Amino acid sequence: MRKLREHLLIGFGNPLLDIVATVSNDLLSKYNLKRNDAILARQEHKTLYKDIREKFSATYTAGGSVQNTLRVCQWILQKPKIATIFGCVGKDNYAKILERRATEDGLNVRYQYTDNAPTGTCVVLITGDSRSLCAYLAAASHFTLEHIQKPENRQLLQKVKYFYISGFFLTVSLPSAMEVARHALKHNATFMMNLSAPFVSQQFKEPLMSVMPYVCVLFGNKEEAETFAREHNWDTKDVEEIGQRIASLPREDHKRERIVVITQSSQPVLLFQGNSIKDFPVEKLTPKQIVDTNGAGDAFVGGFLAQYIIKKPLDVCVDCGIWAAAQIIQQSGCTFKGKPTFRG
Known about the structure:
The chain has 344 residues and is α/β, with parallel strands linked by helices. It is built from 14 helices and 14 strands. It has helices at 25-30, 48-55, 65-77, 93-104, 145-148, 151-159, 167-170, 174-186, 198-203, 205-211, 222-231, 239-247, 296-308, 314-328; strands at 9-12, 16-22, 37-40, 58-63, 83-90, 108-114, 121-127, 130-136, 162-166, 190-194, 217-221, 259-264, 267-273, 276-280. The protein has a nine-stranded mixed β-sheet with strand order 6-5-1-9-10-11-12-13-14, sandwiched between helices. Strands 3-8-7-2-4 form a five-stranded mixed β-sheet. α3 crosses α13 (296-308) and α13 (296-308) packs antiparallel against α14. The chain is globular and about 55 Å long. It starts with 8 loop residues before the first strand and ends in a 16-residue tail after the last helix. Pathway: Purine metabolism; AMP biosynthesis via salvage pathway; AMP from adenosine: step 1/1.
């Protein structure tokens, strides 16, 4: 790992402070929230915080999908500043907590700070082995292209070989996502994206399809893939067919085939490249071992990227993703302990 250089990977996402609570199904019903779903907060969720504070015990952890992924990636690589996080936060104590946690975990932090909104939060509601996410983007939605164009950030972009964005980020700054996608294509870098949540394909279909031709590696889970297919009227729920069709969508980069990775909870992970499909069994954990499934998807991508950016075979990348997800769901929140034990 000594040859691993700094600034290989940049992630663009929404840094959020996670407010995690184990709640009743009645609370989900009250706020029209679904198990294992992720949404942006609406007016009807205005009193959700108050309900949690009064009726349940909550913990506060550093969150945001991309930031979680990069933290896991850094943990596995065990060398600081391989990855850099971009996103917007407020000028408040929550932002200080996020930056401190990210820096402690080895990330190079390049936040944009705004006076116009507080740092974003995400309510994480745990029911049994399911979780429901409700995000208040707040400051995260104030990210602008101007931040990328600052000379010191432009300089950093020139060094990077891998770029990763969440589908969530498309709801915040499509111009920034397109700028990074075009930059990656021009400089022969790898542009990667996560479908993130079903609502991205539903409510932000046009931005998603604007950036899709630049995507070299795409991540998503089964429900997100099925929703993507439904929004494109593909008339199939066959995940293998959906994965192949996504892999064969038009590409701007004609030098390499698109890679699509679809996770299916405890079912095998599917890897698509060209005409090939490979499946990878997932480590089975007992109910007692599963503490919190929040962050499992983020951790999977973190594990995958930790191997991918050091040019390990795709089989090793997927295996590391599966291993990382298994570690995270045995902890509360997207947290990890000790030195990683993965051996590819």
